[in-house]
Amino acid sequence: MADLLLELFSEEIPARMQLDAQDHLAATLEAKLKDISPKLSLVAFSTPRRIAVWVKDLPVEQAASETEIKGPKLGAPDAAIQGFLKKNNLVQADLTERDGVYFAVLKKEGRQTADALKTIIEDMLHAFPWPKSMRWGSGEQAWVRPLHSILCLFDGKVIPVSFAGIKAGNITRGHRFLAPVALTVSNAGDYEATLEKTRVYPNREKRKANILEQLQKAADSAKLVLKKDDGLLSEVTGLVEWPVVLTGSIDAKYMDLPKEVLVTEMRAHQKYFALENADGTLSDKFLITSNMVSTDQGQAIIAGNERVLRARLADGRFFWDMDRKKPLTEWAQGLKAVTFHAKLGTVADKVDRIEKRALQLAPYAKADTKLVAQAARLCKADLVTGMVGEFPELQGVMGRYYAKAQGENESVYDAIRDHYKPQGPTDSVPTNAVSACVALADKLDTLVSMFAIGEKPTGSKDPFALRRAALGIIRIILDNELRLPLKTLFVVQNAPSIALHKAHDKLAKQTEASLKEKHQVGKYVVVNESASEDICDVVPENLAEILYDFFVDRLKVQLKEKGIRHDVINAVIANGDDDFVRVVKRAKALQNFLGSEDGANLLTGYKRASNILVIEEKKDNQRYPGGVELLLLQEIAEKALFEKMCDLDIPLEKALQNEIYDQAGTLLATLRPYVDHFFDSILVNAENREVRSNRLNLLAQIKRRLDSIANFALIEGESKEHKKAA
User: Fold this and answer.
1) Residue 207: which region, alpha, beta or left (left: phi > 0; alpha: psi -120 to 50)?
2) pLDDT tens across 572-581, in order?
3) pLDDT at residue 521, rounded to an integer
4) How far is Cα 201 from Cα 138, in angstroms, rounded to an integer?
5) Same domain as 588, residue 529
6) Which phi and psi (to 5°) does residue 103 adopt?
7) What is the pLDDT, as a whole number, of residue 65?
8) pLDDT band at residue 699 under the 50/70/90 scheme
9) Using one digit for the tens of pLDDT, what is the confidence trace for 220-235?
10) CB distance 645 to 671 below 8 Å
11) pLDDT at 315 over 50
12) Nearest of 566, 517, 530 to residue 715 by alpha carbon
């Protein structure tokens, strides 16, 4: 057995591309080498200037082999036989017949693994999927950055791989500044140790751990707290080969700038780590991750970085002072010149729609309408300020500071910051009523408007982050327990190039004369802005249903993550309920109910009753709606069941009206012995036709009462919990 080592050494690879490239290199080789060795052990490496992989324990040569394969049956169409021959590179004479079937033996000649590796690696390099690549010199081959060398060893010998005009060898290089020498690698096992001696940590995770250890040590030494930033740590890991952490200081005259401005200046442009005091305030110290060991303990590096940071913060100071000279209402006027979407007008148009939606939502959140309107009008104003123009990631944050400085109500300036939330699964949800209204209005406007103009997500593509917006809306609704009739909010509001969505029932009432400017094409309503214009927009007539289905799919994902079974979710939403707070309550109660012994057995009774009804209704060509006649109840079991159901009606209806679904489940569970006794004692298909019909109506009564919680027909048998208990 022997090891393979492959390294591709180039100019600096962008940090964001290194990990994916490392993983792709390892995964591709693993897939292509499975035929040679089914069980592979790989170690992948990446630094700013190289990606590499070490594959352990490959056979030096592949033995000859013969494999019998089964082909088409005798008498099969000629096309099938020819296809089999072509696929396996065979001719008719290679086929043998046995038991009415064609067979063939595939012979594989013995081969040196090194020969196979050369072809595999060259094919992989030509097809390597860099997000962006370039050509250099007079060559035609592309790579992420100009490629300098290829190291390719197998069993200690160079495999003569050739790519981009470069022939593989056994040479790599150390750190660009600290050890810029050519290094000979004699075997794969020495690769990592050889590079570490020349100030390069090729193992990404080892380098990352080293950086974090140095950062924490520097923070502890200064008696400060390292501000956690996994994204920055990952990026910095891709910027250095030999990390050296140094401590710098922020000029005191800039410490009165907002904390977010200071952190963003350091993080986004300079890749510095922020430090905090024990009370959570920002420290005037920061940490630099250098790629250099210097003789002056890094003093020149620190001074240079502090000088650059001062210049950046001077810009921040300028924007901070200039932005506050105008109130947000004046800044908001600039939104009229900013296009939100070609078909949806400007950001100012969007703000108008947000305000209308937020006011529509205010009663549900019990929010002050004046504060909601003011927050909605100002929520996007900071987009045209100098600071946000420089740092787009501070949108909302700076609006809050400016609104607070001009004396706005706390709920207003917090809503300006929080209306973008949540921006991901780990982000917090706005809980203030005003913030929740504006956040919902903003996300709803984006979703409804984009769906109205046909910009809905497709497959893995979601350029406007509509899935994230829908998940954010659901989280806001559930965390704040907002009782929203969601479908009523799926209405397209006025925009320059789309008119109000007209529901189908309203369209049906319009006279023929009024339809001269509006006509229906298939499932769409085409609305012209004026009779003389040629341009029109197409709004789906069933937009509300499309959006509801989109939201339900997102809700299912969230509930599944909380352990709610998919069939339970389907049973609860089968009636199209758009109050998601109620849907979640029902789903949790139903799952608890089905997890009990009574619930699981009652489900069995429901399935039995439902199956009998389906069969008999089809046979009789009629429905049994549930009208039971007392005089036709002959047996004790059926009388007891009917009386029990009648006794449950009032408390069950009260529990459902008050949304005490666990109590409703408990009430229904008391039916279990009566249902069991009925099926054990009663022949449903009695000879007397009237008695038979009455008993079928009694089954319909069982079904109707259980369906008052959810559509039990969609439940897939007994629960896993009940099976385990059994």
Assistant:
1) alpha
2) 998 889 999 9
3) 37
4) 33
5) no
6) -130, 155
7) 66
8) very high
9) 999 999 999 999 999 9
10) yes
11) yes
12) 566
Residue 633: HSE in the Cβ half-sphere, 13 Å Cα cutoff: 16
Judge contact between 276 and 212, C-beta under 8 A: no
Class of residue 144 by CB neighbours under 10 A (exposed 0-12, middle 13-18, buried 19+): buried
At 640, list the tokens: 């007891």
In the prediction, which pLDDT does 531 show?
30
Residue 453 token pair: 């103009």
Predicted pLDDT at 214: 98
User: How many Cα atoms sit within 13 Å of 552 on the Cβ side?
Assistant: 20
Does an H or E element contain 248, and which? Answer: strand 244-249
Q: Which residues contact 517 (CB under 8 A, 6 or more apart)?
A: 527, 528, 530, 531
Q: Tokens at residue 421, please? A: 């939330």
Q: Whose structure tokens read 């296809």?
A: 83
d(CA 266, CA 317) in angstroms, rounded, equals 14
Q: What is the mean pLDDT of residues 98-117?
A: 83
Tally of residues, the chain: 726
Q: Is residue 570 domain-resident?
A: no
Give the Å distances, CA to CA, from 572 to 120, 556, 608, 712, 717: 53, 11, 20, 9, 15
Residue 501: per-residue pLDDT = 37
Q: Three-state DSSP class for 96?
A: strand
Q: Clarify whether residues 132 and 150 are in a common domain.
A: yes
Task: Evaluate whether residue 405 is within a structural domain.
Answer: yes
402 with 508, same domain: the answer is yes
As a 3-state breakdown, the chain gives helix, strand, coil percent values, each rounded to 5, of 50, 15, 30
Lowest average pLDDT, out of 229-238, 350-359, 410-419, 459-468, goes to 459-468
Please say whether the dihedral angle defined by the alpha carbons of residues 573, 578, 579 and 581, taken in this order, is positive or negative.
positive
Share of the chain above pLDDT 90, in %: 72
By CB atoms closer than 10 A (0-12, 13-18, 19+), residue 389 is: middle
406: amino acid identity, one letter: Q
Question: Does residue 620 share a domain with residue 584?
Answer: yes
Looking at the fold, whether 182 and 211 belong to one and the same domain comes out as no
pLDDT by residue (tens digit) across 489-526? Answer: 988 776 555 543 333 334 334 433 443 344 443 333 43
The whole-angstrom separation of Cα 269 and Cα 398 is 18
The domain of 171 spans 2-61+113-197
Nearest of 424, 484, 472 to residue 447 by alpha carbon: 472
Mean pLDDT score of the chain = 89
396 and 477 in one domain? yes
